[in-house]
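[09:14] KT: can someone run the structure on this one? pasting the chain below
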Amino acid sequence: MPAIEVKGLERVFSGGIVAVAGIDLEVAEGEIYAFLGPNGAGKTTTVRMLTTLLRPTGGTASVAGHDVASDPGAVRRAIGVALQEAALDPLMTGRELIRLQATLHGLSRDRGAEAAESLLRRVGLTEAADRRVGTYSGGMRRRLDLASALVHQPRVLFLDEPTTGLDPVSRKSIWVEVEKLNREGTTVFLTTQYLEEADQLADRVGIISAGRIVAEGTPAQLKAEIGQPHIEVVVAEGPTEEVSQVLSQFGRCLPSRNGAALVELEGGAAGVAPVVRALDEAGLTVESLELVEPTLDDVFLAKTGEHLEGAKEDTGEHAEIAG
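[09:31] RB: done, structure tokens below
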């Protein structure tokens, strides 16, 4: 049985606004599934329905074998949820907050105390456990929220943009924890605005645009749909007919760009050395050569007509997304 099964799921708001327009998706037990979408695509609405925070207006969805509409209580007992804006009481300590969460999930006082100690240690907050949450950094709050979502050992964990706005070190620490949880058997449904995050963590990726799933597959499959890796070669003579003739032996030549000749390479990096040798044997002086792999941003652009805001991650320009 899939961990998450969605068929024809819809959500129409008052005024006839269609946020989710009949999507189908399936997430296997033990999988990390990344859900990407531009602003207003229906991403957050979908997650809210799957976590029973919003009732569907059409279709069906089950999580951990329970229908989100007819058996929301069972769904909530089976899932953990860490939202982008964690509702953490700033006056409570980290330890108090996790113990409270344990109590809400029906754990005894002793079991709650044990769970709190174990989870605080797991997310690296033991030393800060008795400090008020209001003194925590953004990264510490995200780790505390993650620990709170795990207190009842959920089968399925929903993470809504868990690293938005965090520094690279904090982001990587969250990634490590997510991968560790997944290895232990937890299914993870992850929404993210960072393409690098989806590429590194996800077994499969779904892209939603205008309320519909427009692409789904492994990161490698999606990138392969867009095209093969290609090399960009700059030679002293510029992209001449002779250069194109040499490169055409190795793959399909692409339109030149910024003074560089481009050719697709089905074998990727393994095909670079023969190209260099052929150019040298033809008496062409190579000034630069770069292997360019298709990216999830290329996929996203091809499927939605726009870049995902998180594609700017390397520049430090992070944008909030409310889907």
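[09:33] KT: thanks! Residues 4-223 form a domain with the Rossmann fold fold (CATH 3.40.50.300).
[09:34] RB: yep, looked fine to me
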